[in-house]
Write a structure and sequence with these properties.
With about 160 residues, the protein is α+β, with helices and mostly antiparallel strands. It has helices spanning about 5-20, 75-85, 85-90, 95-100, 125-135, 135-150; strands spanning about 60-65, 70, 110-115, 120-125. It holds the Pfam family YHS.
């Protein structure tokens, strides 16, 4: 009987073999979400790319990406996002871009943002964003390099 695996061991083994998590309901660890799996504190990711900037979405228009829930200000924005979520979702799962450049994961303020080369970057707050804007391209290179290592590590809680 000692060679028999428990159900949880079998699920863990199956998940490992499939390269997936058996906690299917929660957002992926590499996504910054609140306790309800809501991304960007409810802000509409598509609005950042229009001349609108940060606009609070509504639960009337939602889409899911990487098990995170995004709210939108309109059905048009939701449909645009659904057609190409990679184009609109914030980089680094919505974690602070400057933090990722420094090898850390921090939550963000949706009002501390920048679209650079067609990608949305969020920062912890306006003061961190000021530093990010001093050398954005170099920080993006550092963050891209660091992200592969830290994306599945727990975020820091401030």
């Amino acid at each position: 009987m000692s060679h028999m695996k428990s159900t949880s061991q079998k699920i863990t083994l199956l998940a490992a073999l499939l390269g997936t998590s058996f906690s299917l309901m929660a957002a992926d660890l590499d996504m910054s979400v609140d306790s309800n799996d809501l991304a960007i504190k409810g802000y509409d990711p598509v609005a950042y790319f229009a001349n609108e900037g940060p606009v609070k979405g509504t639960s009337e228009f939602t889409a899911t990406y990487k098990n995170a829930i995004y709210n939108f200000a309109s059905s048009e924005n939701r449909d645009e996002f659904r057609a190409n979520p990679e184009a609109y979702a914030p980089q680094y799962g919505g974690y602070c871009a400057f933090g990722v450049a420094m090898g850390k994961k921090f939550e963000t303020d949706p009002l501390a943002w920048k679209v650079e080369d067609g990608k949305l970057y969020l920062n912890l707050d306006k003061s961190v964003q000021k530093r990010w804007l001093e050398n954005t391209q170099e920080f993006i290179q550092d963050a891209n390099s660091n992200w592969t290592t830290i994306k599945t590590v727990e975020a820091y809680k401030l």
